[in-house]
Design goal:
The chain has about 120 residues and is mostly helical. The chain has helices spanning about 5-20, 35-50, 55-75, 85-100, 105-120.
Length: about 120
Amino acid sequence: MKTTDINKEIKQLMQVCSIILEQDITQIKGFSSRKLGNIANQIIIISYGISNGQINDFDKESNFNYIIHLIDIYIQELDIKNIALLQKLIQSLNEYCYTTISNNTDLSFKIAMNNKIYTN
């Protein structure tokens, strides 16, 4: 597995959010880079565990469910009133995280961006 920089992962999560929301995520009330950092840390830890065989398919799903839980908590704290937009953001972040922990970061970013393209 290639080494993943936590700051790079946080930046990609912020970029996914900003593109989906069509505004800078850092300008939305409730934004927390620390909480995005928690999600990024989990992505990196799980990716590493999968790549070295410490996490099997069952554990992968369990760990991914934990990330989904973190995303849900984080999104609820953002001041976004548009429910459809919130759902689109949650879906994009979930898909981004799932494909990233499956060690395909390039694909994960494309999938997250496709939600923006195809769900407008």
